[in-house]
Amino acid sequence: MKSIVPTESLMNKILLIRGRKVMLDSDLAELYNVETKVFNQAVKRNSDRFPSDFMFQLTKEEFDNLRSQIVTSSWGGRRYPPLVFTEQGIAMLSSVLHSERAIQVNITIMRAFVKLRKLLHTNEELNRKFIEMEKKYDKQFKVVFQILQQLMEPPKKPRKEIGFKPSIKK
């Protein structure tokens, strides 16, 4: 079955805030095809389902920093910093939002988080292998550079000239 939203575009909406991968309430509301205000009202009516490790509100500083990163206009917009939802919070949204679209969007978002986790794991593994190779080859290159250094140094004792010298007739 084709997803409502491409997983790749969802991955761009996953942010790293306070060391957690989260999504903004406005991005989620857009995906669920509802206004952010309506989305947040549904969440607040069910606030007992969203502990601080599922959802939290950004501080003013975090919001200002985020706003400067995504280059939003300074006029209009929100009065309050946004709510952000962790992967567990997004999964909990399925118990709050019951439309068919909400179900499909949740499935797609969960797949995006899984794909992101796989990419991060692959990247960590590649990084680990690169470091191992770097250590291994650093030792070998160190030896090569030491030998090259020795070859470039002038000899300690002057050498006798070797070879044939033609006699010069006057």
Descriptive notes:
The chain is of the alpha+beta class. It has a domain at 7-123: Roll (Mlu1-box Binding Protein, DNA-binding Domain), CATH 3.10.260. The protein has 6 helices and 4 strands. The protein has helices spanning 7-11, 25-32, 36-45, 60-70, 87-93, 100-152, and strands at residues 15-17, 20-24, 55-57, 83-86. Strand 1 (15-17) and strand 2 form a beta hairpin. It is rod-shaped. The model has no long low-confidence stretch (mean pLDDT 79).
String of helices and strands: HEEHHEHEHH
CATH topology of one domain: Mlu1-box Binding Protein, DNA-binding Domain
Mean pLDDT: 79
What class do helices, strands and sheet pairing give? Answer: alpha+beta
Taken as a percent bin, the fraction of beta residues is 5-15%
Measured on Cα atoms, how large is the radius of gyration?
A: 31 Å
* Largest beta-sheet details: 4 strands, antiparallel
CATH architecture classification of one domain: Roll
Question: What is the CATH C-level name of one domain?
Answer: Alpha Beta
Strand order of the largest sheet: 1-2-4-3
- Unreliable stretches: none
Number of strands: 4
Portion in helices: 55-70%
Give the overall shape, derived from the CA principal axes.
rod-shaped
Oligomer: single chain
Report how far the terminal alpha carbons are from each other.
99 Å
Number of helices: 6
